[in-house]
Amino acid sequence: MDPKTNGTPNCLVCKSTSAELPLVMLEYRGARLWICPQHMPVLIHNPTELAGLLEGAESMKPADHHD
Predict the structure, then answer these.
(1) Are 65 and 56 in contact (CB under 8 A)?
(2) Which of the residues 12, 23, 37, 67 has the least number of beta carbons within 10 Å of its own beta carbon?
(3) In 10 A of CB 18, how many CB atoms?
């Protein structure tokens, strides 16, 4: 588990735990992180909004959609 969570997985954005919301685990730069379904769209469509919460987010590009 990520040491930032003190052993309890929680959403990297809203800090909700799995007792409150489903969490999806992701691995990034060797660390295990969790995100809830409500904030998954931010990770996909606006990752720069995670700057300060996710190392390197400020340089991430949003998903390239061909709608």
Answers:
(1) no
(2) 67
(3) 14
- Among residues 30, 37, 22, 41, the alpha carbon closest in space to that of 2 is found at 30
The pTM of the full predicted model, rounded to 2 decimals, is 0.80
Q: How many whole angstroms separate alpha carbon 58 and alpha carbon 47?
A: 7
Residue 63 lies in a domain: no
Beta strands in the chain (DSSP E): 24-28, 31-35
Q: Minimal CA–CA distance to 45: which of 64, 28, 67, 32?
A: 64
Range of the domain at 34: 3-55
Residue 34 within any structural domain of the chain: yes
pLDDT (tens digit per residue) in 29-45: 999 999 999 999 999 99
In the chain, the number of structural domains is 1
